[in-house]
Amino acid sequence: MQPSLSSGFLLVTGATGKVGRAFIQRLLEDARLGHFRVRALCHNRVLQPHARLECVRGSIQNREDVQTALHDVTHVLHLATSKETPDEVMDVAVKGMFWLLEGCRVSPTFRQFILVGGDAAIGHFHYAHPVPVVESQPHTAYPGCYALSKVLEEVMLQQYQIQYGLNGCCLRAPWIMEKDDFRFTLSFGDDVFGGPRWRDLVPENEARDHTRTGAVPVMLDPEGQPVKRNFIHVEDLVDAILLALDSPRARQQLMNVCMDEPLDYGALGEYLSHTRGLPLVPVRTPYRSTWLDNTKAKFLLGWRPKFDMVRMVESAWSYERAPDDPRVVWYPG
Description:
single chain, alpha/beta, Rossmann fold, seven-stranded parallel sheet, two-stranded parallel sheet, globular, disordered N terminus
């Protein structure tokens, strides 16, 4: 945590998503951050009221809504995104971010813009990465509009930093886990969270059997080796955001934030087999191992992720949902 943070008024886009909710809750509960007020730009859903939280209705695609949301704001945490939705992705990722950056550029109160980006900008496990991926690696989006939008977000922020000296920071995160998310990434059933959709990679009758037994897929690359894939728990990501707030060392920096080591599906399968007796199912895929290097964030921010493979598993398998907390997947990943 920063030793002392200046008072501020923080606008959060995508505030009702998993990162937005976790971040706002942590900020409002931490007495050391009591000098921050929060404004949430909400589109479809809203947040519970709080004395230091203001919710404004609007669309990031609408310039007037964005201008209203930015009034008197000192910091922006940009989380709003769009998945594989070609009809709206450019309006959200490009137009929406442009309105935000333009508003910050001319604002008399603005101090810092924090973007949470994604490793889709470097293709995560779609391409072979023979060495650890550092922030200087060129963008290599995989096919689809979502990955393209992640590249465009990073480039737009970088250009505003170059053209106008904007104080920006991009925290590039891989797949973000919370609650029991990780457990459902390994399901052979229709309740699978994200991709791959394992039941489509095996015969239908086998998928039914694997669902019944709770079998664990072991993702293999084209050569038959277990894939290494990057993740981050939402708690670790929130830690990184809070450390970046008002940090001079975060100014105009792009930083990878992820687990210290990518998750090895072979080691994961062995752990679940040993601790829970679950059967393992090797599944060959076109995907490749990627090691996202988080050294820069650790060096500049003093950030350390708390979640490794074991803690990620134990946290997901031990999580029990309350009756008023049903599992709802607003988008696949």
